[in-house]
Amino acid sequence: MQTIRTIKKMQAVAKLLTVKKKKIGLVPTMGALHEGHLSLIRRAKKAADVVIVSVFVNPAQFGPKEDFKKYPRDEKEDLKKIKKAGGDIVFAPEAAEIYPCDYETYVVLENLPKTLEGEIRPDHFRGVATIVSKLFNITRPDLAVFGMKDYQQAMVIKKMTRDLGFPIRIIIAPTVREEDGLAMSSRNRYFDHIGRWEAVCLFYALRTAREMVKAGIVDTKLITKEMRAVILATCAVAKIDYIAFTEFETLKPVKKVVKNTVCSLAVRLHGVRLIDNMKLI
Ligand code: PAF
Predict the structure, then answer these.
(1) Contact status, residue 212 vs residue 223, Cβ threshold 8 Å
(2) Single pTM value for the model
(3) From the first residue on, what is the mean pLDDT of each consecutive set of 10 residues in the chain (281 residues)?
Protein backbone atom coordinates (compact mmCIF):
# COMPACT_ATOMS: atom_id res chain seq x y z
CA MET A 1 0.00 0.00 0.00
CA GLN A 2 1.28 3.42 -0.98
CA THR A 3 0.85 6.64 1.04
CA ILE A 4 0.82 9.87 -0.95
CA ARG A 5 1.06 13.35 0.60
CA THR A 6 1.04 15.77 -2.34
CA ILE A 7 -1.60 16.73 -4.89
CA LYS A 8 0.89 16.57 -7.74
CA LYS A 9 1.96 13.00 -6.99
CA MET A 10 -1.61 11.85 -6.37
CA GLN A 11 -2.76 13.33 -9.68
CA ALA A 12 0.13 11.70 -11.53
CA VAL A 13 -0.64 8.29 -10.02
CA ALA A 14 -4.36 8.66 -10.76
CA LYS A 15 -3.58 9.62 -14.37
CA LEU A 16 -1.39 6.55 -14.80
CA LEU A 17 -4.11 4.31 -13.39
CA THR A 18 -6.63 5.83 -15.79
CA VAL A 19 -4.29 5.28 -18.75
CA LYS A 20 -4.00 1.65 -17.64
CA LYS A 21 -7.84 1.51 -17.69
CA LYS A 22 -8.03 0.76 -13.97
CA LYS A 23 -11.34 1.61 -12.31
CA ILE A 24 -10.62 3.92 -9.38
CA GLY A 25 -12.75 3.91 -6.22
CA LEU A 26 -12.44 6.72 -3.68
CA VAL A 27 -13.36 6.56 0.00
CA PRO A 28 -12.98 10.00 1.61
CA THR A 29 -12.43 9.91 5.38
CA MET A 30 -11.19 12.09 8.21
CA GLY A 31 -9.32 9.18 9.76
CA ALA A 32 -9.98 7.74 13.25
CA LEU A 33 -11.29 4.79 11.31
CA HIS A 34 -13.85 2.34 12.65
CA GLU A 35 -15.77 -0.60 11.21
CA GLY A 36 -18.15 1.82 9.42
CA HIS A 37 -15.28 3.27 7.36
CA LEU A 38 -13.86 -0.18 6.71
CA SER A 39 -17.21 -1.30 5.30
CA LEU A 40 -16.99 1.63 2.82
CA ILE A 41 -13.51 0.51 1.75
CA ARG A 42 -14.73 -3.06 1.27
CA ARG A 43 -17.72 -1.75 -0.73
CA ALA A 44 -15.39 0.28 -2.97
CA LYS A 45 -13.15 -2.75 -3.44
CA LYS A 46 -16.08 -4.74 -4.82
CA ALA A 47 -16.70 -2.19 -7.57
CA ALA A 48 -13.21 -0.82 -8.36
CA ASP A 49 -9.77 -2.15 -9.35
CA VAL A 50 -7.89 0.33 -7.17
CA VAL A 51 -9.20 1.87 -3.94
CA ILE A 52 -7.88 5.24 -2.81
CA VAL A 53 -8.68 6.21 0.78
CA SER A 54 -8.19 9.84 1.71
CA VAL A 55 -7.36 10.67 5.31
CA PHE A 56 -7.72 14.38 5.96
CA VAL A 57 -9.30 16.21 8.91
CA ASN A 58 -10.82 19.02 6.90
CA PRO A 59 -10.63 22.32 8.82
CA ALA A 60 -13.11 23.99 6.45
CA GLN A 61 -16.03 21.87 7.63
CA PHE A 62 -15.65 22.64 11.35
CA GLY A 63 -17.24 25.69 12.93
CA PRO A 64 -15.12 27.95 15.21
CA LYS A 65 -16.60 26.34 18.37
CA GLU A 66 -16.44 22.77 17.09
CA ASP A 67 -14.02 19.93 17.81
CA PHE A 68 -11.43 20.38 15.01
CA LYS A 69 -8.48 20.52 17.42
CA LYS A 70 -9.53 17.57 19.53
CA TYR A 71 -10.86 15.46 16.62
CA PRO A 72 -9.20 12.02 17.06
CA ARG A 73 -6.10 11.45 14.89
CA ASP A 74 -4.21 8.16 14.73
CA GLU A 75 -2.60 7.78 11.33
CA LYS A 76 -0.50 4.74 12.20
CA GLU A 77 -3.53 2.71 13.24
CA ASP A 78 -5.56 4.05 10.30
CA LEU A 79 -2.95 2.86 7.78
CA LYS A 80 -2.98 -0.65 9.25
CA LYS A 81 -6.77 -0.79 9.12
CA ILE A 82 -6.94 0.52 5.54
CA LYS A 83 -4.44 -2.08 4.37
CA LYS A 84 -6.36 -4.87 6.07
CA ALA A 85 -9.67 -3.72 4.54
CA GLY A 86 -8.20 -3.76 1.03
CA GLY A 87 -7.22 -0.12 0.41
CA ASP A 88 -4.47 0.29 -2.19
CA ILE A 89 -3.47 3.94 -1.89
CA VAL A 90 -3.80 6.39 0.99
CA PHE A 91 -3.94 10.08 0.17
CA ALA A 92 -3.03 11.90 3.40
CA PRO A 93 -2.06 15.52 2.70
CA GLU A 94 -1.13 18.21 5.21
CA ALA A 95 -3.66 21.04 5.63
CA ALA A 96 -1.36 23.53 3.84
CA GLU A 97 -1.26 21.26 0.79
CA ILE A 98 -5.03 21.48 0.44
CA TYR A 99 -5.54 25.05 1.69
CA PRO A 100 -2.44 27.15 1.04
CA CYS A 101 -2.51 30.54 2.76
CA ASP A 102 -3.91 32.33 -0.32
CA TYR A 103 -6.73 29.78 -0.80
CA GLU A 104 -10.10 31.35 -1.72
CA THR A 105 -12.28 28.98 -3.78
CA TYR A 106 -15.26 27.20 -2.22
CA VAL A 107 -18.16 25.09 -3.49
CA VAL A 108 -21.58 26.17 -2.22
CA LEU A 109 -24.95 24.50 -2.78
CA GLU A 110 -27.85 26.93 -2.60
CA ASN A 111 -30.59 24.90 -0.90
CA LEU A 112 -29.82 21.41 0.37
CA PRO A 113 -27.49 22.65 3.12
CA LYS A 114 -30.05 25.05 4.55
CA THR A 115 -31.91 22.48 6.68
CA LEU A 116 -31.02 19.90 9.36
CA GLU A 117 -27.26 20.00 10.04
CA GLY A 118 -26.82 23.11 7.93
CA GLU A 119 -29.14 25.14 10.16
CA ILE A 120 -26.94 24.44 13.18
CA ARG A 121 -23.57 24.23 11.40
CA PRO A 122 -23.85 27.06 8.83
CA ASP A 123 -20.60 26.57 6.85
CA HIS A 124 -20.27 22.84 7.34
CA PHE A 125 -21.47 21.74 3.89
CA ARG A 126 -19.50 24.47 2.15
CA GLY A 127 -16.43 22.82 3.69
CA VAL A 128 -17.58 19.31 2.80
CA ALA A 129 -18.53 20.17 -0.81
CA THR A 130 -15.22 21.98 -1.28
CA ILE A 131 -12.98 19.20 0.01
CA VAL A 132 -14.93 16.47 -1.78
CA SER A 133 -14.73 18.32 -5.12
CA LYS A 134 -11.01 18.84 -4.57
CA LEU A 135 -10.59 15.14 -3.80
CA PHE A 136 -12.56 14.27 -6.95
CA ASN A 137 -10.23 16.46 -9.02
CA ILE A 138 -7.10 15.11 -7.34
CA THR A 139 -7.91 11.38 -7.39
CA ARG A 140 -10.10 11.21 -10.54
CA PRO A 141 -12.27 8.35 -9.29
CA ASP A 142 -14.85 6.40 -11.31
CA LEU A 143 -16.84 5.87 -8.14
CA ALA A 144 -16.86 7.20 -4.59
CA VAL A 145 -18.42 5.63 -1.50
CA PHE A 146 -20.07 7.57 1.35
CA GLY A 147 -21.97 6.35 4.40
CA MET A 148 -25.71 6.77 4.91
CA LYS A 149 -24.85 7.63 8.54
CA ASP A 150 -24.16 11.17 7.26
CA TYR A 151 -27.43 11.27 5.33
CA GLN A 152 -27.53 14.96 4.47
CA GLN A 153 -23.86 14.92 3.48
CA ALA A 154 -24.53 11.99 1.14
CA MET A 155 -27.42 13.87 -0.51
CA VAL A 156 -25.36 17.06 -0.81
CA ILE A 157 -22.52 15.16 -2.49
CA LYS A 158 -24.90 13.33 -4.86
CA LYS A 159 -26.45 16.64 -5.88
CA MET A 160 -23.10 18.43 -6.23
CA THR A 161 -21.74 15.58 -8.37
CA ARG A 162 -24.75 15.88 -10.67
CA ASP A 163 -24.79 19.69 -10.76
CA LEU A 164 -21.07 20.01 -11.52
CA GLY A 165 -21.04 17.09 -13.97
CA PHE A 166 -18.39 14.99 -12.23
CA PRO A 167 -18.36 11.65 -14.12
CA ILE A 168 -18.41 9.73 -10.84
CA ARG A 169 -20.84 7.13 -9.52
CA ILE A 170 -21.79 7.90 -5.93
CA ILE A 171 -22.48 4.83 -3.81
CA ILE A 172 -24.26 5.29 -0.49
CA ALA A 173 -23.44 2.43 1.88
CA PRO A 174 -25.60 1.44 4.88
CA THR A 175 -24.84 2.60 8.43
CA VAL A 176 -22.84 0.15 10.51
CA ARG A 177 -24.03 -0.15 14.11
CA GLU A 178 -22.57 -1.39 17.37
CA GLU A 179 -24.24 -4.45 18.92
CA ASP A 180 -26.67 -2.27 20.92
CA GLY A 181 -27.64 -0.23 17.85
CA LEU A 182 -25.46 2.89 18.29
CA ALA A 183 -24.30 4.08 14.85
CA MET A 184 -20.52 3.85 14.54
CA SER A 185 -18.85 7.26 14.62
CA SER A 186 -15.35 8.52 15.32
CA ARG A 187 -16.93 10.78 17.95
CA ASN A 188 -18.11 7.76 20.00
CA ARG A 189 -14.52 7.68 21.31
CA TYR A 190 -15.23 10.84 23.31
CA PHE A 191 -17.66 9.08 25.69
CA ASP A 192 -16.93 7.72 29.13
CA HIS A 193 -18.70 4.51 30.19
CA ILE A 194 -22.03 6.12 31.14
CA GLY A 195 -22.05 8.44 28.12
CA ARG A 196 -21.41 5.54 25.78
CA TRP A 197 -24.21 3.56 27.37
CA GLU A 198 -26.69 6.46 27.09
CA ALA A 199 -25.65 7.33 23.52
CA VAL A 200 -27.82 4.48 22.30
CA CYS A 201 -30.83 6.79 22.89
CA LEU A 202 -30.66 8.00 19.26
CA PHE A 203 -31.09 4.46 18.00
CA TYR A 204 -33.85 3.69 20.51
CA ALA A 205 -35.73 6.78 19.29
CA LEU A 206 -35.38 5.77 15.64
CA ARG A 207 -36.46 2.24 16.45
CA THR A 208 -39.53 3.63 18.21
CA ALA A 209 -40.35 5.71 15.14
CA ARG A 210 -40.04 2.66 12.90
CA GLU A 211 -42.26 0.59 15.19
CA MET A 212 -44.93 3.32 15.32
CA VAL A 213 -44.97 3.51 11.53
CA LYS A 214 -45.26 -0.28 11.34
CA ALA A 215 -48.27 -0.01 13.67
CA GLY A 216 -49.88 2.49 11.27
CA ILE A 217 -49.03 5.78 13.05
CA VAL A 218 -47.60 8.09 10.39
CA ASP A 219 -48.19 11.56 11.87
CA THR A 220 -44.70 13.01 12.39
CA LYS A 221 -45.84 15.21 15.32
CA LEU A 222 -46.98 12.16 17.27
CA ILE A 223 -43.84 10.23 16.39
CA THR A 224 -41.59 13.16 17.37
CA LYS A 225 -43.28 13.42 20.78
CA GLU A 226 -42.66 9.74 21.47
CA MET A 227 -39.06 9.92 20.21
CA ARG A 228 -38.32 12.85 22.53
CA ALA A 229 -39.71 10.87 25.46
CA VAL A 230 -37.56 7.84 24.61
CA ILE A 231 -34.39 9.97 24.34
CA LEU A 232 -34.95 11.71 27.66
CA ALA A 233 -35.88 8.46 29.41
CA THR A 234 -32.56 6.95 28.30
CA CYS A 235 -30.43 10.05 28.86
CA ALA A 236 -31.87 12.74 31.14
CA VAL A 237 -29.16 15.29 30.17
CA ALA A 238 -29.69 14.93 26.39
CA LYS A 239 -30.31 18.11 24.38
CA ILE A 240 -32.15 17.45 21.14
CA ASP A 241 -31.01 19.74 18.30
CA TYR A 242 -33.64 18.40 15.90
CA ILE A 243 -35.81 15.46 14.94
CA ALA A 244 -36.80 15.74 11.27
CA PHE A 245 -38.76 13.78 8.69
CA THR A 246 -37.76 14.38 5.09
CA GLU A 247 -38.08 13.03 1.54
CA PHE A 248 -35.05 10.88 0.80
CA GLU A 249 -33.20 12.90 -1.88
CA THR A 250 -34.71 16.38 -1.73
CA LEU A 251 -34.62 16.72 2.09
CA LYS A 252 -38.07 18.36 1.87
CA PRO A 253 -39.92 18.07 5.19
CA VAL A 254 -42.96 15.77 5.33
CA LYS A 255 -45.87 15.82 7.79
CA LYS A 256 -46.83 12.19 7.27
CA VAL A 257 -44.43 9.30 6.83
CA VAL A 258 -44.62 7.71 3.39
CA LYS A 259 -42.34 5.34 1.44
CA ASN A 260 -38.71 6.56 1.53
CA THR A 261 -39.25 9.08 4.32
CA VAL A 262 -36.06 9.43 6.33
CA CYS A 263 -36.16 10.33 10.00
CA SER A 264 -32.98 12.06 11.15
CA LEU A 265 -31.94 13.51 14.44
CA ALA A 266 -29.08 15.27 16.19
CA VAL A 267 -28.60 15.02 19.94
CA ARG A 268 -26.01 16.47 22.29
CA LEU A 269 -25.17 14.35 25.31
CA HIS A 270 -22.27 14.40 27.75
CA GLY A 271 -20.51 17.08 25.65
CA VAL A 272 -20.72 15.06 22.41
CA ARG A 273 -22.98 15.80 19.44
CA LEU A 274 -24.25 12.75 17.55
CA ILE A 275 -26.39 12.35 14.45
CA ASP A 276 -28.25 9.34 13.13
CA ASN A 277 -31.07 8.51 10.72
CA MET A 278 -33.26 5.75 9.44
CA LYS A 279 -35.58 5.16 6.48
CA LEU A 280 -38.89 4.41 8.14
CA ILE A 281 -40.60 2.41 5.35
O1 PAF B 1 -17.70 12.11 6.33
C2 PAF B 1 -16.56 12.56 6.52
O3 PAF B 1 -15.73 11.96 7.20
C4 PAF B 1 -16.17 13.90 5.91
O5 PAF B 1 -17.21 14.79 5.96
C6 PAF B 1 -15.61 13.78 4.47
C7 PAF B 1 -16.64 13.25 3.51
C8 PAF B 1 -14.41 12.85 4.50
C9 PAF B 1 -15.15 15.14 3.99
O10 PAF B 1 -14.17 15.68 4.82
Answers:
(1) yes
(2) 0.97
(3) 98 98 98 98 98 98 96 97 98 98 98 97 98 98 98 98 98 98 97 98 98 98 98 98 97 98 98 98 93
pLDDT of residue 170: 98
Whether CATH 3.40.50.620 fits 2-173: yes
CA-54 nearest atom, ligand 1: 8
| Most informative mutation of 34, 52, 117, 132 for ligand 1 (most atoms within 8 A of CB) | 132
Among protein residues, the one with the nearest Cα to ligand 1's atom 1 is: 29
Q: Which is the CATH superfamily of the domain at 186-279?
A: Pantoate-beta-alanine ligase, C-terminal domain (3.30.1300.10)
Ranges of CATH 3.30.1300.10 domains, the chain: 186-279
Probe residue for ligand 1, chosen from 66, 106, 131, 187 as the CB with the greatest number of ligand atoms within 8 Å: 131
CATH 3.40.50.620 maps onto the chain at: 2-173
**Is the Cα torsion angle 95, 97, 98, 99 positive or negative in sign?**
positive
What is the distance between the alpha carbons of residues 83 and 51, in angstroms, rounded to a whole number? 10
